[in-house]
UniProtKB/TrEMBL annotation:
Pfam families: AsnC_trans_reg (PF01037), HTH_24 (PF13412). Keywords: DNA-binding, Transcription, Transcription regulation. The keyword Transcription applies. The keyword Repeat does not apply. This is Lrp/AsnC family transcriptional regulator. It comes from Albidovulum sediminicola. Residues 3-64 form the HTH asnC-type domain.
Amino acid sequence: MQLDATDRRILGILQKEGRLSNAELSERVNLSPSACHRRVGRLEAEGFIQGYVALLDARRLDRPTTVFVEITLSGQADEVLEAFERAVKLVPDVLECHLMAGSADYLLKVVAQDTDDFARIHRQYLARLPGVAQMHSSFALRTVRQTTAIPV
């Protein structure tokens, strides 16, 4: 499916204002409500829109500490990677896990209350992940920019 300028405007607006009503969205992209609704349905069906979420404030939820954890595994065999990936998906404090090219095999984004809470997460979960040979943690001092909006 090819995206035209109207599809891109719809995606740009929805990823910043996902609770916008169809009537408001259709007005902003200069379409009739029915045509706008059809386009949004098509964008959902084609997988351009994967879902709708509420973005929460980690500080208000007592998770102000962000830690990036670089993990190097003991090997690169498929079964080692698959076992690690299955296990890391079960760690509730891991927001993101990326398979990397470079010095580490995986990069995790973890949220915690503070350093003591991260120590608990490390002991209870991260240190028990299968296949881990090395782990390096870096604490974010301040978030300069954070967005979920993909350029369209």
